[in-house]
Amino acid sequence: MTNVDAAAEVGPPPPYDEECAAVLAGMPVFPPLTPESIPHMRAAADQFMPRPTDADLERDGQYVVDERVVAGPEGAPDIRLLICRPAAVVLPTAALFSIHGGGMISGSPRDALGEILALAARVGAAVVSVEYRLAPETPHPGPVEDCFAGLQWVFAHATELDIDPTRVVIIGGSAGAGLAAGVTLLTRDRGGPALRGQLLMCPMLDDRNDTVSARQMASLRMWNRSDNELGWSALLGADRSGSISPYAAPARATDLSGLPPTFIDVGSADTFRDEDVAYASRIWAAGGVAELHVWPGGYHGFDGIAPQAALSQAAVRAREDWLERLLGARDV
Fold first, then answer.
1. Catalytic residue at 5?
2. Is 321 considered catalytic here?
3. Which of 30, 106, 276, 303 has the smallest CB count inside 10 Å?
Protein backbone atom coordinates (compact mmCIF):
# COMPACT_ATOMS: atom_id res chain seq x y z
CA MET A 1 0.00 0.00 0.00
CA THR A 2 1.42 3.43 -0.89
CA ASN A 3 1.27 6.45 1.37
CA VAL A 4 -1.38 7.93 -0.89
CA ASP A 5 -3.50 4.77 -0.60
CA ALA A 6 -3.03 4.76 3.16
CA ALA A 7 -4.12 8.39 3.36
CA ALA A 8 -7.65 7.39 2.38
CA GLU A 9 -7.85 5.38 5.62
CA VAL A 10 -6.43 8.02 7.95
CA GLY A 11 -8.33 8.58 11.15
CA PRO A 12 -8.23 11.57 13.50
CA PRO A 13 -4.91 12.58 15.02
CA PRO A 14 -3.87 10.79 18.23
CA PRO A 15 -4.80 12.65 21.41
CA TYR A 16 -2.14 14.71 23.13
CA ASP A 17 -0.64 13.68 26.44
CA GLU A 18 -2.71 15.53 29.06
CA GLU A 19 0.19 17.30 30.79
CA CYS A 20 1.75 18.37 27.51
CA ALA A 21 -1.61 19.50 26.14
CA ALA A 22 -2.24 21.70 29.16
CA VAL A 23 1.02 23.58 28.63
CA LEU A 24 0.38 24.01 24.90
CA ALA A 25 -3.09 25.39 25.59
CA GLY A 26 -1.57 28.27 27.53
CA MET A 27 0.76 29.34 24.74
CA PRO A 28 -0.02 32.08 22.20
CA VAL A 29 -1.42 30.99 18.85
CA PHE A 30 0.58 32.31 15.91
CA PRO A 31 -0.86 32.90 12.42
CA PRO A 32 -0.19 30.32 9.71
CA LEU A 33 3.26 30.34 8.18
CA THR A 34 3.71 31.78 4.71
CA PRO A 35 6.85 32.68 2.77
CA GLU A 36 6.20 36.32 3.61
CA SER A 37 5.90 35.57 7.33
CA ILE A 38 9.30 33.88 7.71
CA PRO A 39 10.96 37.09 9.01
CA HIS A 40 8.13 37.45 11.53
CA MET A 41 8.56 33.81 12.58
CA ARG A 42 12.23 34.46 13.23
CA ALA A 43 11.46 37.56 15.25
CA ALA A 44 8.81 35.70 17.27
CA ALA A 45 11.26 32.92 18.01
CA ASP A 46 13.73 35.48 19.31
CA GLN A 47 11.01 36.92 21.56
CA PHE A 48 9.25 33.80 22.84
CA MET A 49 12.13 31.29 22.98
CA PRO A 50 14.65 32.54 25.54
CA ARG A 51 18.15 31.50 24.53
CA PRO A 52 20.79 30.68 27.11
CA THR A 53 23.49 33.23 27.80
CA ASP A 54 27.14 32.34 28.21
CA ALA A 55 26.58 32.47 31.97
CA ASP A 56 23.75 29.95 31.66
CA LEU A 57 25.91 27.64 29.57
CA GLU A 58 28.79 27.81 32.04
CA ARG A 59 26.58 25.91 34.54
CA ASP A 60 28.15 27.49 37.63
CA GLY A 61 31.67 27.09 36.37
CA GLN A 62 31.31 23.54 35.06
CA TYR A 63 31.82 24.60 31.44
CA VAL A 64 34.04 27.07 29.61
CA VAL A 65 32.23 28.81 26.73
CA ASP A 66 33.96 30.03 23.60
CA GLU A 67 33.00 31.11 20.09
CA ARG A 68 35.08 30.49 16.99
CA VAL A 69 34.67 31.73 13.44
CA VAL A 70 35.97 29.00 11.14
CA ALA A 71 36.19 28.30 7.44
CA GLY A 72 32.92 27.36 5.79
CA PRO A 73 32.49 25.21 2.68
CA GLU A 74 34.73 26.06 -0.26
CA GLY A 75 33.62 29.36 -1.79
CA ALA A 76 31.12 30.06 1.02
CA PRO A 77 31.26 32.42 4.01
CA ASP A 78 32.90 31.47 7.28
CA ILE A 79 30.72 29.81 9.91
CA ARG A 80 30.44 30.32 13.65
CA LEU A 81 30.79 27.58 16.27
CA LEU A 82 29.70 27.91 19.90
CA ILE A 83 31.94 25.64 21.97
CA CYS A 84 31.24 24.52 25.54
CA ARG A 85 34.04 22.48 27.14
CA PRO A 86 34.01 20.84 30.58
CA ALA A 87 36.17 22.77 33.02
CA ALA A 88 37.33 19.82 35.12
CA VAL A 89 37.01 16.28 33.74
CA VAL A 90 39.40 13.62 32.55
CA LEU A 91 40.67 14.73 29.14
CA PRO A 92 40.17 14.26 26.27
CA THR A 93 36.37 14.30 26.43
CA ALA A 94 33.58 13.02 24.26
CA ALA A 95 31.72 15.69 22.29
CA LEU A 96 28.21 16.34 21.03
CA PHE A 97 28.14 18.18 17.71
CA SER A 98 24.79 19.99 17.87
CA ILE A 99 22.65 21.27 14.99
CA HIS A 100 19.70 23.49 15.92
CA GLY A 101 16.14 23.12 14.65
CA GLY A 102 13.82 25.69 13.14
CA GLY A 103 12.23 24.09 10.09
CA MET A 104 15.26 24.92 7.91
CA ILE A 105 14.13 28.56 8.01
CA SER A 106 14.93 29.88 11.49
CA GLY A 107 16.95 29.28 14.63
CA SER A 108 20.33 29.93 16.20
CA PRO A 109 23.16 27.84 17.69
CA ARG A 110 21.84 28.68 21.16
CA ASP A 111 18.38 27.20 20.56
CA ALA A 112 17.74 24.36 23.04
CA LEU A 113 21.44 24.38 23.86
CA GLY A 114 20.74 24.28 27.59
CA GLU A 115 18.97 20.96 27.12
CA ILE A 116 21.77 19.63 24.92
CA LEU A 117 24.36 20.68 27.48
CA ALA A 118 22.41 18.90 30.24
CA LEU A 119 22.64 15.70 28.18
CA ALA A 120 26.35 16.28 27.61
CA ALA A 121 27.01 16.82 31.31
CA ARG A 122 25.74 13.31 32.07
CA VAL A 123 28.60 11.83 30.03
CA GLY A 124 31.23 14.51 30.68
CA ALA A 125 31.10 15.67 27.08
CA ALA A 126 31.85 18.93 25.34
CA VAL A 127 29.25 20.51 23.07
CA VAL A 128 29.91 22.26 19.77
CA SER A 129 26.89 24.01 18.23
CA VAL A 130 27.11 25.13 14.62
CA GLU A 131 25.50 28.17 12.99
CA TYR A 132 24.41 27.29 9.47
CA ARG A 133 22.89 29.51 6.79
CA LEU A 134 19.10 29.39 6.65
CA ALA A 135 16.67 28.80 3.81
CA PRO A 136 15.22 30.30 1.68
CA GLU A 137 18.14 32.74 1.47
CA THR A 138 20.48 29.72 1.35
CA PRO A 139 18.90 26.65 -0.24
CA HIS A 140 20.37 23.14 -0.27
CA PRO A 141 23.24 22.26 -0.21
CA GLY A 142 24.28 25.33 1.79
CA PRO A 143 22.93 24.35 5.24
CA VAL A 144 24.14 20.75 5.27
CA GLU A 145 27.54 21.71 3.82
CA ASP A 146 27.94 24.38 6.52
CA CYS A 147 27.29 21.74 9.17
CA PHE A 148 29.68 19.29 7.54
CA ALA A 149 32.40 21.95 7.38
CA GLY A 150 31.92 22.70 11.07
CA LEU A 151 32.20 19.01 11.93
CA GLN A 152 35.38 18.67 9.86
CA TRP A 153 36.89 21.61 11.74
CA VAL A 154 36.13 19.98 15.09
CA PHE A 155 37.88 16.78 14.07
CA ALA A 156 40.85 18.69 12.63
CA HIS A 157 41.21 20.62 15.90
CA ALA A 158 40.29 17.81 18.32
CA THR A 159 43.64 17.93 20.12
CA GLU A 160 43.39 21.69 20.63
CA LEU A 161 39.84 21.28 21.95
CA ASP A 162 40.72 18.31 24.21
CA ILE A 163 38.13 16.22 22.35
CA ASP A 164 38.47 12.50 21.74
CA PRO A 165 37.78 12.12 18.00
CA THR A 166 36.61 8.54 18.50
CA ARG A 167 33.75 9.70 20.76
CA VAL A 168 31.91 12.38 18.78
CA VAL A 169 28.12 12.09 18.52
CA ILE A 170 26.08 14.27 16.19
CA ILE A 171 22.80 15.49 17.68
CA GLY A 172 19.87 17.60 16.56
CA GLY A 173 16.16 18.20 16.90
CA SER A 174 13.59 18.57 14.13
CA ALA A 175 15.24 20.24 11.12
CA GLY A 176 18.53 20.06 13.01
CA ALA A 177 18.08 16.30 13.31
CA GLY A 178 17.35 16.09 9.59
CA LEU A 179 20.57 17.98 8.90
CA ALA A 180 22.39 15.71 11.35
CA ALA A 181 21.15 12.67 9.44
CA GLY A 182 22.27 14.30 6.18
CA VAL A 183 25.72 15.07 7.61
CA THR A 184 25.99 11.47 8.83
CA LEU A 185 25.32 10.23 5.31
CA LEU A 186 27.93 12.69 3.99
CA THR A 187 30.56 11.44 6.46
CA ARG A 188 29.91 7.87 5.33
CA ASP A 189 30.04 8.69 1.63
CA ARG A 190 33.06 11.02 1.84
CA GLY A 191 35.10 8.65 3.94
CA GLY A 192 34.86 10.42 7.29
CA PRO A 193 35.14 11.86 9.80
CA ALA A 194 33.89 8.81 11.68
CA LEU A 195 31.04 9.53 14.09
CA ARG A 196 30.42 7.46 17.22
CA GLY A 197 26.65 7.87 16.88
CA GLN A 198 23.76 10.06 15.80
CA LEU A 199 21.01 11.21 18.18
CA LEU A 200 17.99 12.38 16.18
CA MET A 201 15.08 13.97 18.06
CA CYS A 202 11.88 14.17 15.98
CA PRO A 203 13.95 14.41 12.78
CA MET A 204 12.66 16.17 9.64
CA LEU A 205 13.64 13.62 7.00
CA ASP A 206 11.17 13.40 4.10
CA ASP A 207 10.32 16.29 1.77
CA ARG A 208 7.46 14.30 0.19
CA ASN A 209 5.27 15.22 3.16
CA ASP A 210 2.69 12.54 2.37
CA THR A 211 2.88 10.00 5.20
CA VAL A 212 -0.15 9.03 7.23
CA SER A 213 1.11 11.07 10.18
CA ALA A 214 1.68 14.13 7.99
CA ARG A 215 -1.94 13.90 6.88
CA GLN A 216 -3.22 13.21 10.37
CA MET A 217 -1.46 16.28 11.73
CA ALA A 218 -2.45 18.47 8.77
CA SER A 219 -4.29 21.05 10.87
CA LEU A 220 -2.68 20.77 14.30
CA ARG A 221 -0.73 23.62 15.85
CA MET A 222 2.75 22.19 16.16
CA TRP A 223 4.57 22.11 12.80
CA ASN A 224 1.70 20.76 10.74
CA ARG A 225 1.72 19.57 7.14
CA SER A 226 1.43 23.10 5.73
CA ASP A 227 4.33 24.36 7.86
CA ASN A 228 6.35 21.35 6.77
CA GLU A 229 5.69 22.05 3.10
CA LEU A 230 6.85 25.61 3.59
CA GLY A 231 10.10 24.50 5.21
CA TRP A 232 10.91 21.99 2.52
CA SER A 233 9.98 24.39 -0.28
CA ALA A 234 12.28 27.01 1.23
CA LEU A 235 15.15 24.52 1.22
CA LEU A 236 14.49 22.71 -2.06
CA GLY A 237 12.02 24.80 -4.07
CA ALA A 238 8.34 24.19 -4.64
CA ASP A 239 8.91 21.89 -7.64
CA ARG A 240 10.47 18.68 -6.35
CA SER A 241 9.54 16.44 -9.26
CA GLY A 242 13.19 15.80 -10.09
CA SER A 243 15.92 14.03 -8.18
CA ILE A 244 16.26 15.13 -4.53
CA SER A 245 19.55 14.66 -2.72
CA PRO A 246 19.50 12.31 0.29
CA TYR A 247 21.82 14.79 2.01
CA ALA A 248 18.90 17.25 1.96
CA ALA A 249 16.09 14.73 2.64
CA PRO A 250 17.66 11.63 4.21
CA ALA A 251 14.48 9.59 3.71
CA ARG A 252 15.38 9.68 0.00
CA ALA A 253 18.58 7.69 0.63
CA THR A 254 18.49 4.31 -1.10
CA ASP A 255 21.24 2.88 1.13
CA LEU A 256 21.24 3.21 4.92
CA SER A 257 24.03 0.73 5.56
CA GLY A 258 27.25 1.68 7.27
CA LEU A 259 25.74 4.27 9.62
CA PRO A 260 26.86 4.67 13.24
CA PRO A 261 24.57 3.63 16.12
CA THR A 262 21.43 5.72 15.90
CA PHE A 263 18.85 6.99 18.40
CA ILE A 264 15.54 8.27 17.04
CA ASP A 265 12.57 9.51 19.04
CA VAL A 266 9.33 11.21 18.09
CA GLY A 267 5.84 11.79 19.47
CA SER A 268 2.82 9.81 18.30
CA ALA A 269 1.08 13.11 17.44
CA ASP A 270 4.02 14.50 15.47
CA THR A 271 3.94 15.16 11.72
CA PHE A 272 7.28 13.33 11.46
CA ARG A 273 6.17 10.15 13.27
CA ASP A 274 5.90 7.80 10.30
CA GLU A 275 8.97 8.99 8.38
CA ASP A 276 11.02 8.60 11.57
CA VAL A 277 9.71 5.10 12.26
CA ALA A 278 10.42 4.18 8.63
CA TYR A 279 13.98 5.52 8.87
CA ALA A 280 14.73 3.39 11.93
CA SER A 281 13.18 0.35 10.24
CA ARG A 282 15.32 0.86 7.16
CA ILE A 283 18.49 1.13 9.27
CA TRP A 284 17.60 -2.23 10.83
CA ALA A 285 16.85 -3.68 7.39
CA ALA A 286 20.33 -2.58 6.25
CA GLY A 287 21.92 -4.39 9.20
CA GLY A 288 22.47 -1.30 11.33
CA VAL A 289 21.89 -0.45 14.98
CA ALA A 290 19.03 1.89 15.92
CA GLU A 291 16.99 2.63 19.02
CA LEU A 292 13.50 4.01 18.39
CA HIS A 293 11.02 5.61 20.81
CA VAL A 294 7.53 6.82 19.88
CA TRP A 295 6.20 8.82 22.81
CA PRO A 296 2.41 8.43 23.21
CA GLY A 297 0.61 11.76 22.96
CA GLY A 298 3.75 13.73 22.22
CA TYR A 299 3.35 16.59 19.74
CA HIS A 300 6.25 18.18 17.87
CA GLY A 301 8.72 19.58 20.39
CA PHE A 302 6.67 18.48 23.39
CA ASP A 303 9.70 17.92 25.62
CA GLY A 304 10.94 21.48 25.14
CA ILE A 305 7.51 23.06 25.53
CA ALA A 306 6.44 21.00 28.55
CA PRO A 307 9.72 19.90 30.16
CA GLN A 308 8.11 19.11 33.53
CA ALA A 309 5.62 16.64 32.07
CA ALA A 310 6.27 13.01 32.95
CA LEU A 311 6.35 12.12 29.24
CA SER A 312 9.03 14.75 28.57
CA GLN A 313 11.15 13.56 31.47
CA ALA A 314 10.90 9.98 30.24
CA ALA A 315 12.08 11.10 26.79
CA VAL A 316 15.09 12.89 28.28
CA ARG A 317 15.99 9.86 30.41
CA ALA A 318 15.91 7.62 27.35
CA ARG A 319 18.36 9.92 25.55
CA GLU A 320 20.62 10.06 28.60
CA ASP A 321 20.58 6.27 28.95
CA TRP A 322 21.49 5.79 25.28
CA LEU A 323 24.38 8.26 25.49
CA GLU A 324 25.68 6.64 28.67
CA ARG A 325 25.66 3.21 27.04
CA LEU A 326 27.40 4.63 23.96
CA LEU A 327 29.97 6.88 25.64
CA GLY A 328 30.09 5.85 29.28
CA ALA A 329 28.84 7.81 32.31
CA ARG A 330 31.21 10.63 33.31
CA ASP A 331 29.18 13.37 34.98
CA VAL A 332 30.54 16.90 34.87
1. no
2. no
3. 30
288 contacts 255 by C-beta, under 8 angstroms:
no
Confirm whether pTM is higher than 0.90. yes
- Tens of pLDDT along the chain (332 residues)? 334 444 457 899 999 999 999 999 998 887 888 999 999 888 877 777 778 999 999 999 999 999 999 999 999 999 999 999 999 877 899 999 999 999 999 999 999 999 999 999 999 999 999 999 999 999 999 999 999 999 999 999 999 999 999 999 999 999 999 999 999 999 999 999 999 999 999 999 999 999 999 999 998 889 999 999 999 999 999 888 789 999 999 999 999 999 999 999 999 999 999 999 999 999 999 999 999 999 999 999 999 999 999 999 999 999 999 999 999 867 77
Of the listed 111, 146, 270, 276, which one is catalytic? 270
In the set 98, 174, 233, 268, the catalytic residue is: 174
- Mind listing the domains of the chain with CATH numbers? 18-327 (3.40.50.1820)
Marked catalytic residue, from 111, 300, 303, 312: 300
Decide: residue 112, CB within 10 A, 0-12 exposed, 13-18 middle, 19+ buried: buried
First to last CA, the chain: 49
